[in-house]
Amino acid sequence: MRQLIIQVPRGHGDTVINIAKSLDAQNLAEFAAHNGEDEAIDVVILHVSNHKVDPLLAKLQDLPKLHITLIPSAVIPLQPPASEAPEQVKDVETLSPIEVFLSGLQSVGSWRGFLAYAAVAGIVVWIGLYTNTTFLLVAAMLIAPFAGPAMNTAIATARGDYQLLWRSLLRYFVALAVTILTTWTLSLILRQEIATSLMIANSQVSAVAVFLPLAAGAAGALNLVQSQQNSLVSGAATGMLVAASLAPPTGIVGMATAIGRWDMVTDGIFLLLLQLCGINLSASLLFRVYGLSTQGTRYQRGKKLVTRLAWIITVIALSLLLTWQFINSPYLERSTIAQQANAELQNVVKQVDLAKLVESNVRFTRPNIEGENTLLCVVYVQRQQGVTASAGEIRSRLTQAIQTRLNREGFNVTPLVDVIVLEKG
Questions:
Q1: Contact (Cβ atoms closer than 8 angstroms) between residue 146 and residue 220
Q2: What DSSP character marks residue 52?
């Protein structure tokens, strides 16, 4: 339920009451008053369900000198008998489209605080990546102001609002630029020369990377359209989910630029573009499902052409990014391929049946060796009971079998395998 305070010239209050009753408004009150210009007015206080806010505003629109105060928080109008109170409060609805849109406009506010948060997020993500401290990356996700512009871009796409769209995109890319510049500057000042292990781990792209922004966009849109009482997940959590797909690659781009690791820069930029397209596609579609359209009450600047063009550009960009990802295998699928290679490696050890697997680590090496995609496989095994072959023979046979399997499966890698046979003391 939403509370609205309606001010109209004296004599029009009954019209407001009748319109509100037709939309099942509750706890209505009307009284005479004077406004700031000492004009006689009627003031009506009413409570109406969320999904009827837009229809109510549409029916009131033609009244002269109409002033509306919409209270953007849930209210609980109670009516007699008191025994029905539990039934009266359990009906929880999604927000009205006008509220979702206006909240997006309100968030496009001061630049000073926005840029300050982007810079602070850059400092925190740099410390996390530089010191290999994972929880600092989580802190940076909470601070980073990327979720707001990303979700406003989706709102603008659903609404067909060109002005909000370009302002949201501008804020998005400015925030990314500030964070990248911050991490780049810190790496230069501290004379960083090599990539840290956390940078390497977070820069590797998975074949299923597109699912994260799609899920983040859907979660963000759901959070914005749900009423406070019906939201099972906090806004901070969904905002962090959006930032989780943006903060680490942003920091990596700045730090990798400072140390000249252009392969990692390419990975980071790919991820940033993939996140924006994925978030915009899923979130804007969900906003349309929940009623955001190009034209609405007290909103006339939306254009269907803008919505269609934004969707076409988003889908084309997402398709090009995914095509680039899969035709350059394994360059932008290293995380997934490393996991698949590890599974094949473990199967080989079982099939050869000379030793039991203790542990295996499979990862791509970052130094670029021209013409090769070097996959480093370190395998720890323990000889099977009753096997009399020497450690050297076990090592040789397993190494050859693993390399043969990985080459045969078409991973397009150069496998460097190190088998270590552990002996009982």
A1: no
A2: G
The tens digit of pLDDT for each residue in 367-388 reads 556 667 888 999 999 988 888 8
Quick one: pLDDT at residue 50? 76
- Please state, in angstroms and rounded to a whole number, the distance separating the CA atoms of residues 217 and 240: 11
| 183/141 same-domain check | yes
Provide φ and ψ at 371, rounded to 5°. 80, 5
Domain match, 119 and 262 both: yes
**Are residues 322 and 361 located together in one domain of the fold?**
no
Burial (CB < 10 A; 0-12, 13-18, 19+), residue 162, is middle
| Strands (E) located in 140-213 | none
- DSSP bridge partners of 7: 43, 67
CATH code, domain with 57: 3.30.70.120
Quick check: 229 pLDDT over 60?
Answer: no
Q: Count how many domains the chain has.
A: 3
DSSP state of 299: B
Lookup: tokens for 215? 């899920």
What gap in Å lies between CA 133 and CA 154, rounded to an integer? 32
Dihedral angle computed from the Cα positions of residues 301, 305, 311 and 314, in that order, rounded to the nearest 10 degrees: -90
Q: Quick one: tokens of 253?
A: 């781009």
Q: Give the DSSP per-residue string, 309-335.
A: HHHHHHHHHHHHHHHHHHHTTTTT-HH
- Give the residue from 41, 74, 107 where a domain finishes: 74
Check whether 33 has a pLDDT greater than 80.
Answer: yes
pLDDT tens digits for 145-156?
A: 887 888 889 988
User: Based on the domain organization, do 256 and 154 belong to the same domain?
Assistant: yes
Mean pLDDT estimate for the chain: 84
**Type of residue at 403:** Q
HSE-up of residue 158 (Cα within 13 Å, Cβ side): 29
Q: Is 302 helix (H, G, I), strand (E, B) or coil?
A: coil
The whole domain housing 186 covers: 98-327
Q: Retrieve residue 295's tokens.
A: 């034209």
pLDDT score for 116:
92
Cα first-last separation, the chain: 72
pTM, whole model, 2 decimals? Answer: 0.77
**Per-residue pLDDT tens over the stretch 81-122:** 655 555 545 555 677 777 777 776 666 667 888 899 999 999
Two tokens at 79?
């009516």
Closest CA to 278 of 327, 329, 317: 317
pLDDT top residue among 190 and 302: 190
**CATH number, residue 208:** 1.20.1080
Question: Which neighbouring-strand residues pair with 378?
Answer: 361, 418
